[in-house]
């Protein structure tokens, strides 16, 4: 195919880099322990350039058909770690620069920021809270879409039972305010493990193990178009259960 002059050829060039700074391990207190109030820093950089610098011969292409786009991505994360907890914060920005003739203004920019806090107050209990914000801007139209996300997870384990709860909410709107939406998600699951084994003392045990679970889930979605007066609303809920048995 390299020898066919009428075929459009594109090139892709990528540059990436990652920087790790474990500050908590590098800095120590007078007693020699790690300074846990300092985070572990991670920064990553990515650049991708996709372009075509040769106009095909007799292929029906004009200079405006030649792709030329550059994307930049920056991600910074901070991580704090304790005995029973963990806190992580992440921020990122990406830019898409379209340099194709006739589409120079079709550029986009996006930013994200998120915080995740997890806690294990007991050996059988895990809690996690998530907060996030995302925004994307269309530089050609001047519109910006923003989404706020919140989430909560709980996992409580007993000897033969376990309970897991997950809840999340996403609020989205645009600037100028022409559309908005709301999405919620809730899931609850209870599981029970049981079984019986005979002859284990003799080394030739046999029996069965089983797991029964019951799950409830509900999802809602509401969207409004403030320009044309359209609205959409959906509500979906499900209840399901299952039983698995292993015989040995």
Characterization of this structure:
- Strands 1-2-3-4-5-6-7-8-9-10-11 form an 11-stranded antiparallel sheet.
- The chain contains 1 helix and 11 strands, in the order βαββββββββββ.
- Strand 10 (206-225) and strand 11 (230-247) form a beta hairpin.
- The longest helix is centred in the N-terminal third of the chain and has 4 residues, at 23-26.
- The chain is mainly beta and 248 residues long.
- The protein is extended, with a radius of gyration of 27 Å.
- The termini are far apart.
Order of helices and strands: EHEEEEEEEEEE
How many E strands?
Answer: 11
- Report the sheet with the most strands, covering strand number, pairing sense and barrel closure: 11 strands, antiparallel
Unreliable segments of 5+ consecutive residues = none
Helix percent reads under 10%
Q: Give the end-to-end Cα distance, rounded to a whole number of Å.
A: 59 Å
How many helices? The count is 1
Task: Give the spatial strand order of the biggest sheet.
Answer: 1-2-3-4-5-6-7-8-9-10-11
- Assembly state: single chain
Q: Which term fits the overall shape?
A: extended
Mean pLDDT: 89
Question: Structural class of the helices, strands and pairings?
Answer: mainly beta
Radius of gyration: 27 Å
* Beta-strand fraction estimate: over 45%
């Amino acid at each position: 195919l390299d020898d066919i002059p009428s075929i459009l050829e594109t090139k892709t060039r990528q540059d990436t880099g990652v920087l790790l700074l474990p500050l908590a391990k590098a800095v120590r207190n007078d007693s020699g322990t790690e300074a846990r109030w300092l985070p572990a820093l991670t920064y990553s950089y990515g650049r991708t350039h996709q372009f075509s610098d040769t106009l095909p011969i007799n292929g029906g292409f004009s200079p405006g058909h030649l792709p030329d786009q550059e994307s930049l991505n920056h991600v910074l994360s901070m991580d704090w770690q304790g005995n029973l907890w963990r806190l992580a914060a992440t921020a990122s920005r990406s830019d898409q620069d379209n340099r194709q003739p006739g589409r120079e203004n079709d550029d986009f920019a996006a930013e994200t920021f998120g915080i995740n806090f997890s806690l294990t107050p007991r050996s059988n209990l895990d809690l996690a809270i998530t907060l996030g914000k995302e925004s994307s801007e269309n530089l050609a139209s001047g519109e910006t879409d923003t989404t706020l996300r919140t989430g909560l997870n709980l996992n409580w384990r007993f000897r033969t039972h376990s309970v897991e709860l997950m809840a999340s909410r996403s609020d989205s709107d645009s600037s100028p305010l022409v559309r908005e939406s709301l999405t919620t998600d809730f899931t609850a699951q209870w599981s029970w493990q049981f079984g019986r084994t005979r002859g284990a003392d003799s080394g030739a045990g046999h029996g069965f193990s089983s797991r029964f679970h019951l799950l409830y889930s509900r999802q809602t979605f509401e969207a409004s178009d403030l320009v044309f007066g359209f609205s959409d609303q959906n509500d979906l809920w499900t209840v399901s259960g299952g039983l698995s048995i292993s015989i040995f």
